[in-house]
Amino acid sequence: MRQGPWYTWAHRWCQTNLTEEDGAGVDIAAWRAFWRENAIQGVIVNAGGIVAYYPSAFPEQYRARTLGERDVLGDFVAAAREEGLAVLARMDCNRAGAALLREHPEWFARNRAGDPYAAGDRFLTCVNSGYYREYIPALLREIAARYAPDGFTDNSWQGPNARQICYCENCRTRFAADTGLSLPEAPDWDDPTYRAWIRWSFGLRRETYERFNRVARTARGEDCLWLGMVNANPVDAHCALYDLKEIAALSPVLMTDHQGRDALNGFEQNSYNGLLLHALAGWNALIPESAATYVRGVQAFRRAANPPLETQKWMQEGLAGGISPWTHFIGGRQEDRRVFATPKKLLREHAKLEPYLYDRAPLCNVGLIWSQENINFYGRDARVSRCAEPWRGFTRALTRARIPALPVHADHIGKYASDLDLLILPDFAAMSDAQIEAVAAFLQKGGSVLATGRSGMLGPYGDERQSSPLDAPLGIRRRPGLVESQASSDWENYARHSYLRLQNASHPLFAGFADTAILPFGGTYVETEAQGLAPLATFVPPFPIYPPELSCMGERDSGLPLVFAGESGFGGRIVYFAADIDRCFCRYDLPDHGELLANAVRFALCGRELLRVSGHGRIDCRLYEQAAQGRLVLHIVNLSGAENNPGYLEEEYPVGPLRVQVRAGDRPLTRAVLPLIGETLPLERQGEWVTFALPRLESWALIVLE
């Protein structure tokens, strides 16, 4: 008999995302067989909102066109209950059809001209209207009374985005009452009214999240949760106008909808997804993630099977980040039956490894700083170049160097400071005074800081500071502004044909570069003077690429320093890149840039690494502690061969042997166990380090040190 609320034991999920043709004829017996075969513990099935799959008593609720009088939701719930599964009823309340628009025009979001915002053949509903305040709560109560689900999910609960200001009468009246202002004329990040509207909109989404949860809990008890899905990508979530930090604090469960990698973010992004959400919600929170079984490449094909390894690798990285598997199928009937085979191996592995995947916390002493305010008010409409690329540059470099890092919200630096030895600020420009003070306090307690670009140079709303209060703790002085140029594939345009000249080749930052006096640069920079740190590399200005006879340095060394490093004076170290090497690594994928970033991290850690892994191959490593059991758990995911275009991973190749060293401290560890294959590896101890050899890494491995 299972004990405790559903969210303490339902770890493997299956969603049958019904379509309009599934109102009749869906084979629920086949789904029951799939649930059994794959040890599924919880199911998600469509209920209402955009389309209903049950005979609602509300005439406004649009039904699936093939539903008739059938109750597909009821059939799925009954089958799941007979199997002993948890059930979440799926809603999607962000849009509705023309019939509802005609009947309730006051429920819909309006542009400045007063026209409803169209979304395909439907229209966006207003989060400030009776649709969200009365109608959806009424549907939730109806579904709860009839079907007694354990909770609800909602696909697109957040309504219009940051570029879609709603000018309906509801919003005009509420915004004026709450702020004393009229709605902004247009999206304009320099407009204080627009920025106030952004903050106000975050509050509306939190209010919605809390309202829907009150309805669900009142209807079915405290453990009946309403769960609006969130995206863990730290540079995209702000477009949805909800504050991820605030939402994560509201529930013991986060349903996350990030179904695969893209051109910017590799597989390793998914382990960061899990760590980021757990760092906000708590290490014992349940965080299932929807994983697509359909094609998500350059062109999506919703009803065709994804290359199996593409989905499997994404899910492997999710497990490494503490995510629970949630396999997602579009349609109750599948003509491409290959989709069913895709998640099977991983679901079975998850069931076998379940004791090692929960009730644990990461062992990680590198914090990668982010905040939604920085993404909003610094990133603005250029969030990819300003925020995503520096972030991605570091996540890629850290993965490449096999250095685990933890995404830490800037407001939580103090919360995690005792576990961290290094903070990384990847062009983290928009900072509050309190966040800057937290960084300074971290330095004063012996921590190290690695910062790049305009970190701390802007106020919390993205306004330029005349001088940054972060400069003094970092030992630098920066001029406001940024020196930018445009990259080009045209050899006649050499605006970014620039270099770094190494001034101290023997410094640890330049390990591996003994045979060169220069490194390619090609980015933007902040003019900076040393005020305690040592300048280590200077700027070589652009010079012609073509013709080759003219490709010589007009100015071999400008003398402008772009890389700085030194001791903090409190036991830690400081590294500052005035040059945006993190952004350059994301854009150009040059190994020199990745190695320079990794060297900077190693130098700043002062020899305090917790994990060292040597051997060939590209791998991602995540280390956890299960304190109650007295053991460590290490994930190693094989990414070798996974650099091809997202959506199309066809094969991987095994690597090894790998030599793994873990700083165990005084933990009495005596063996390394591979539970999936039942093997034990000899463990050697030398001081506080334990070492073992992994002869061969196939797709991924979980190693238990006990």
Provide tags for this entry.
Rossmann fold; 17 helices; nine-stranded mixed β-sheet; 706 residues; Immunoglobulin-like; 28% helix; alpha/beta
Task: Explain what the structure shows.
The protein has 17 helices and 33 strands. It is α/β, with parallel strands linked by helices and 706 residues long. Among the domains are: 240 residues, Class I glutamine amidotransferase (GATase) domain (Rossmann fold, 3-Layer(aba) Sandwich), CATH 3.40.50.880; 95 residues, Immunoglobulin-like. A hairpin with a 4-residue loop joins strand 29 and strand 30.
Summarize, please.
By secondary structure, the protein is of the alpha/beta class. Helix content is 28%, strand content 22%.
Q: Taking Cα atoms only, what radius of gyration do you get, to the nearest Å?
A: 26 Å
Individual helix count: 17
Helical fraction: 25-40%
What is the CATH topology classification name of the domain at 366-605?
Answer: Rossmann fold
Major sheet size, sense and barrel closure: 9 strands, mixed
State the distance separating the first and last CA atoms: 29 Å
- Give the averaged pLDDT, no decimals: 95
CATH superfamily grouping of the domain at 366-605:
Class I glutamine amidotransferase (GATase) domain
Strand order within the widest beta sheet: 15-14-16-17-24-23-22-19-20
Shape: globular
Please identify the structural class as seen in this structure: alpha/beta
The CATH architecture of the domain at 366-605 would be 3-Layer(aba) Sandwich
Proportion of residues in β-strands: 15-25%
Q: Let me know the number of strands.
A: 33
Report the uncertain regions: none
**Could you name the CATH class of the domain at 366-605?**
Alpha Beta
